[in-house]
C-alpha cells in the first residue's frame, strides 16, 4: 500500500471508490490466473497424497503435502484479494502461506539426497547421509521459523514500524533458505563429481539394479531441476521482500505470475512425474539411514554384526 495514502481504515473502500495505489497491492490480482494456479496445486496435492500412500514415502509426502496446502491457501488469498484488494486480512492470507510454503517443499527435496547417496554408496560422499539429512532439515526448520515468525509479526502489527520488523524477519528467513539451497546444490555437485570418479565396484552392490534403471537416473535430474526452480523462486522472494511491501517488485503482478507460481508448479510437477516412490521402485524405505543401521555398518566393517554380538555376548 502506498505511503501517500492516509493511514485510515479502508474497510469501506472499493475499486470504484478508492484508487489501487491505496490497496494492499497496487494492482488487481488476476482472477483467472490465480484460480488456475490454485486448481493446479490442488491436483498436485491429490497426486502427491496418492503417491505417498501408494509407495509409503511418508517423510517426503508430509513435506510436499504441507507445502501444497499452503500454496492452495495462498492463491485462495489472492483470489480474495481480487474481490477486495483493500482488505489486509486477504493480503496476509496470500502473503504468509506463499512465503513459507517452499520451505516445506525444500525439506522434502532435502530428504532425497541422503537416499541417493545411500543407493550409490555412502563411502563415496564427503559427509554421511545422516549428516546431510540432519544439517539441511535443521536449516530448513530455522528458515521456516524465521519466515513464520516474521509473517506473524507483520500480520499482528499495529503500525508501519511493526509491519517492517515482521518483513525484515521474513527476509532473514528467506535469505537463510537461499543460502541453504545454494549450499545444498554445491554439495550435491561435489558428490556428483566424486561419483563420476568412482568405479562401479566401489558402489553399494545392494542397489546395482536400481542404479541402472532409467527412472532412477531421470529422478536425479528431476530433483536437480526442482531444487534450481525453488532456488530461483526464493531469490525472487528475497528481492521482493527486501524492497518492502511498497516496492516495485511487490507491486508488479507480471513478475509474480512468472517467478512465483510457475517455478513451484514445475518443481512439484517434476517430483510428481518422477516421484521418489516411482523412481526407487519400492526401495525408498530400504535406502535410508538410522542410528541402528550406522552401528550395524560399523560392526560389519569389523567382521561382525549387532545380531552376532547379541547372540554371543562376551
From TrEMBL:
Keywords associated with the record: Membrane, Transmembrane, Transmembrane helix
Major localisation: membrane
InterPro entries: RTA1
Keyword Transmembrane helix: yes
Record GO cellular component, one term: fungal-type vacuole
Compartments, as annotated in UniProt: Membrane
Stated name of the protein: RTA1 like protein
